[in-house]
Amino acid sequence: MESVVVSINLFGAVALLLFGLGQIKDGMSRAFGARLRIGLAAGTRGGFRSFIAGLVATIALQSSTATALMVASFVEKDLIAPAMAQIVLLGANVGTATTAWIVALGLGWLSPMLILAGVILLRGKSVQRQGAGAALAGVGLMLLSLHLLSAATDPIRQSQSLNLFISMLGNAWPVALIFSAVLAVLASSSLAIVVLILSLAASGGIETSLVIVLVLGANLGGAVPPVLATLKAPVAARRVALGNLIVRTTGCVAALPLAGYGAALLDMSPFSHANLAVDAHLIFNLAVAVIAWPLSPLLLRVTTALLPEKEGAESSRSYLDTHDLNQPVAALAGASREVMLVGDLIERMLRQASDAMRDSDLSKLNDISALEGRVDRIQHAIKVYVLKVGRDGLCQKDQRRAMDIVEYAINLEHIGDIIEKGIRPEIAKKIDLGLSFSDDGKSELERLFSITLDNIRMAQSVFATRNADLARRLVEVKEDVRRLEKQSSDRHLQRLRDGRADSIQTSSVHLDMLRDLKRINAHIAAVAHPILDESGLLIESRIKQAG
């Protein structure tokens, strides 16, 4: 009976730790998602900046897996150079190790205060405050889970069965490494497993060499979830995840025979022996980063050789399989995946327009017309395909899904037209005439671009998941965009009244771009309306106020 209670306490503490980590990731994404993504994409123009961007993003999200998937997505969309992506992930690995080291500082006394502050912020009305509240509460829960883990593992440390099991692992390092790696894969978090190792090793009942081996296993297992998550992704994204796995595997294989020497060095160090697990975790990832950084071009060649690009894959890829037309569920699933490809193209167009405006670089506008042409062709193909699916009659649910797919495709096509026929010429005109926005005007436009980019990504998630809460948030952000557009227009007009020469010269371009970005966000938010209507949350184009 006692063993059952101990097991429940242990698994409950681990579950609370994973829940807290999830709250931090979700909260930070809600509060600072746009800034994190923009910062990560913009901060990868050099090796050092790429490393720091990965480190900061991972500390903020508390998940190197989340950073890896984000980076893989950016590489797929040509927002990050593949060689820089590997350096970003080296920074991400150091970031998760730094987080574990900070956690071990003994900040458990902050837990009640952080949870209280988080709950208070969660009652706020803005998405940013709610996100910050969820993140703070997540940190508090994570720290609380460490206290519970310590209490739960205390009787385990006295267990003869555990001592026997540890003794067996101590005599079979490869088995110990694989065991720890499997736990990290199951938990989808190397951080959680390192913290568990930290709790088990706190009493000194585990040899330092075995602690190091278990930490190596956690690092190896932490590289597996991104590989599994990108198995069906384009080749460019899969290479990033595979490269990270190769780096960690090579590091673990090289470090495993040296675990005994490392243990001797750590035992002689002045640091607290209770924290040897997190010290080993941080030292290992720093060493791997130092060694692998100069080898990133070689790693890129290796992953390219292992995962070669299929000739014509991008232009010929299509999920509109005519063999599925007599199976509505499969056909509509294919059409849904195809329309999300259109969303990815729209995001790329927006990104290129934003970069061209920021850098005053005409070359970054070159691909927009070609991308818009692809959007038109795929959108037309989707409409024709969905029409064929409905020839033999569809049930009400499938009819509604078919209509949602077509409407989303049409809205995305309208966005493409606005970018190609509105925003692109406006930016080109500004660059050709050598005009410059005022600092305030440029900042306002860049902010609206970043919000719009984040919204198209959110729209993709809303369309894929049909999550009502996410749909509500998307419409709320649309209202925020409307207010920002009005505020920016008012400020611009005030600058004109003040006689600001830079504002006078760029007045028509500035106001036209504000109008176009507002129109784009209206089309983006339209994907949420059927979901909110279906959930009973939409009344006359307004969201019901939460009770």
Describe the fold and architecture:
There is one protein chain. The chain contains 24 helices and 2 strands. By secondary structure, it is an all-alpha fold. 47% of the residues are buried.
Essential attributes:
single chain; two-stranded antiparallel ribbon; 547 residues; 2 strands; globular; disordered C terminus
Look at the helices and sheets and give the structural class.
mainly alpha
Shape: globular
Low-confidence stretches: 540-547
Largest sheet: 2 strands, antiparallel
Strand order of the largest sheet: 1-2
Counting H and I runs of at least 4 residues, what is the number of helices? Answer: 24
- Strand tally, please? 2
Helix and strand succession?
A: HHHHHHHHHHHHHHHHHHHHHHHHEE
Rg of Cα set: 26 Å
Which whole number gives the mean pLDDT? 80
Short characterization:
The chain is mainly alpha-helical and 547 residues long.
Write the SSE topology.
Blueprint: H1 2-42, H2 47-61, H3 64-76, H4 82-103, H5 111-122, H6 127-157, H7 160-170, H8 173-187, H9 190-201, H10 208-222, H11 224-229, H12 235-255, H13 259-268, H14 276-292, H15 296-306, H16 313-316, H17 328-359, H18 368-389, H19 396-432, H20 439-465, H21 468-497, H22 501-505, H23 507-525, H24 529-534, E1 538-539, E2 542-543
Helix pairs in contact: 1-2, 1-3, 1-6, 1-20, 2-4, 3-4, 3-12, 4-9, 4-12, 4-14, 4-15, 5-6, 6-9, 8-9, 8-10, 9-10, 9-14, 10-12, 10-13, 10-14, 12-15, 17-18, 17-19, 17-20, 18-19, 19-23, 20-21, 20-23, 21-23
